[in-house]
Design brief:
Length: 207
């Protein structure tokens, strides 16, 4: 019985890893191009334009994801970051992506169209800087990325961007998802085994 339970856990764990990887890596194919909202995985920076549209840099997907002032998803675009980290700045009507890898800083318009590549003057790069996770606009409104496992975006302390439960689940590391499912399986199996044990020894317990 123990070996059978172990085999079941191994098979389900493997299936969960494969499914989670396919969904998280290729979620973009569930919709069409820029219409597909991806999870807020590893958000490294955010900026806000004069129309209060919010631009979030996502290191995990190498994308900039855009929301309107009410927190509704608009579109996203891919950043040529060579799978490295990047952080965002906004200058006028341009979004600047400062990339860890490569020789260029990338300049986009507000719709995600690449305008130009600017040769880097220095190779130094700050991969971890909490100041990029908050932004204060000209009206004094403060936007901030909050939360570790399930990131949200707050405006003046109130949540303005919160993704649905499906997207939140996809922000979990694969190993953690497998662990949680394995624990659930063990609880269910142990419960069934305990019930079977009680049923088989019901007469003994009654005596």
């Amino acid at each position: 019985m123990g070996k059978k339970i172990l085999n079941i856990i191994i098979i389900i764990s493997f299936a969960v890893i494969v499914i989670s990887f396919i969904i998280s890596e290729n979620y973009i194919f569930l919709n069409v191009g820029r219409k597909a909202e991806v999870p807020l995985s590893d958000p490294n920076s955010l900026v806000v334009d004069t129309h209060e549209n919010i631009y979030i840099g996502l290191n995990y997907f190498s994308k900039v994801q855009v929301y309107d002032k009410y927190g509704n998803f608009k579109f996203n675009w891919e950043v040529e970051a060579n799978t490295g980290a990047f952080f965002l700045e906004i200058i006028g009507d341009s979004i600047i992506a400062n990339c860890e890898r490569g020789e260029y800083t990338l300049k986009y318009d507000l719709n995600g169209r690449l305008l130009t590549k600017i040769k880097k003057k220095s190779k130094s790069f700050r991969t971890s800087n909490e100041s990029f996770k908050s932004y204060t606009d000209k009206c004094g409104h403060k936007y901030e990325i909050t939360g570790l496992l399930f990131p949200d975006v707050e405006k003046n302390g109130k949540i303005v961007i919160r993704q649905n439960i499906f997207l939140k689940i996809l922000t979990f590391p694969d190993g953690l998802i497998v662990l949680l499912i394995d624990i659930l399986i063990l609880i269910i199996l142990n419960h069934k085994l305990f019930r079977n044990y009680l049923f088989q020894h019901k007469s003994d317990l009654g005596d």
